[in-house]
């Protein structure tokens, strides 16, 4: 509690850029990599591609801190599906409201970054025909989880997570295996930033199995108020007589 309050104060008193820096310091062990020696031609190196493009330093640091960059490199090497990245610019990260990233634990940070990775290669022209929602490396693309939709209009490609709407503002890299597109907003997934889904509607009673279930579900059923318990009973009774009637009718028709 006390720690939380301190955190809050820190966020209020420190300029946002400093908070971002603190966050990065917190989650990267090595902030500055020594200048890379010219790499021999080999497997695709996604961080290298982003470094070359410039203006993705924060995304690169998060890719490394969460080890998602290794995941991408391995997936590129190990599968033939290729890969597509939506890379938010440094501006995209600095325009997030204060505390957005700090509110996430390590596992959630991994999910956030994986949400920007599609495990298939999608050329710019293919966006018109992809089916929504796209599946990302963050997993479950069902509603309230990690859905990511793409809509196209002429040459423009819009990306929507249900929380964040943005459009692809440039193609950074494409080699038939890996495509990297620039986006000007960080794509915030519903599972981490959206409202919690409404409680599922009570499943319609299935009278036939209900009796057996009632034993296992006892604690939950105990909470059911008397009136609906009564109506459940009535349904069962009606169904029982319905079946009994059908059986009798069947016997007599033989
Ligand atoms: C990818 O490139 C970065 C920088 O260009 C380098 O630090 C890293 O070691 C490279 N990774 C691999 C697997 O070669
Ligand atoms: C790439 O995959 C091959 C097997 O398909 C494997 O032998 C090689 O070690 C992998 N390289 C990297 C850098 O993961
Ligand atoms: C794409 O997003 C822009 C704003 O970023 C909006 O003006 C446009 O209507 C959107 N197009 C589609 C097809 O959703
Ligand atoms: C994404 O597309 C699916 C399928 O068309 C749709 O059901 C869903 O509402 C869309 N979600 C968003 C956030 O646009
Ligand atoms: C985002 O775009 C979807 C259509 O893809 C639209 O239904 C929704 O209202 C937009 N949300 C915001 C916050 O602009
Ligand atoms: C529900 O049943 C319990 C015990 O059978 C009884 O004490 C209670 O008053 C009933 N509640 C209502 C709302 O009828």
Automatic annotation (TrEMBL):
Look up the domain of life of the source.
Eukaryota
Q: Write the protein's name.
A: Fasciclin-like arabinogalactan protein
Q: Which organism is it from?
A: Melia azedarach
